[in-house]
# Entry
Amino acid sequence: MEKLTQKISFANQTKQKLFPTGRVEKQNFLSVANYKEIVEFSVSDLVCTALAGIKFSDFQSKLNRQNQFFPLIAPKNSTLGGLVASDFRGFYQKKFGTFKDNLLGLKFFDGEGNLLKSGGKVVKNVAGYDLHKLLVGSYGTLGLIFEITLRTYALPENEILLVFEGEKNELLEVVNFCQKLPCDVLELSNQKLYCGFSGREREVLVFSEFLKQNFSKNFKAEFSKEEKAVFLQELTDKFYTEKLAFKILTSISTSKELCKNLDFDFRLDFLTGTFLVETQFWEQVLKLKDFFRFNLKLSRFDFDFPRKLSFSSKEVEKLHFLLKEKFDKNGVFNSLETIGKIS
# Structure
């Protein structure tokens, strides 16, 4: 930890720019790769504290040994700190919430090398402002996330993933029906619709059987709890390859129209209105952005270069620069020249 403080202090003196990362230390990169321990795990309170450099897969495995989990399917090799800094959102977020909903506290380094603390280690905390939530989705521009405290959940008794195939109009009929049910996964990927349930044994079986009977024409497969976890991991990893992957945040109704106009690989989460598109051609992405005018964000977690932030409005952009002045007035982290809209 002292090494991190010294490097930040030296960067201030020499006006060097640093880029927070969970990877191995490189020039101009400030790495937390060596800080990967579980600091504290209160099983009875459903609260776990870990250092930012821990691989999410390792973090999840340690929770699973105590029959608990954190509701997220993350890209392979991603670190817990990187997921929080990028506000990664995947399967389960509609049912269990995002990082901002489950983040109880943080320790982070500001631009002068001070280790700051915000929040606590209990679900209900009234100790001041939720300062730590400002770091969620900040892409390392406000500080270096060092320690993270999250709420955890008991593993469900049962899980099922149903697969439906057919024309898009047919699948949208299934979607409209499923939106009335307590799904934890409802996602269209090209010509296949995935609908998942988790919870009590009987509840999961009742909902799944009901769907299979009502949409028997389009029903193609059923995955068990173990198969569901493996498949969702593979589907997540598929969109984090050598190609470009982007998120388009929009309304659920508009998302339904958008899926009819795509002719390349995509994933559409109907529970949150989040589109994830994959393409080798930057021009296609810009065309989507110009045509639909959505909030388009680069969605990658294994690149060795700084993120670009996309601001949804001038007001949000102004707020970010005010926060930057407060936490990193010398611009040590992810220099301001790298921050801007995708254009």
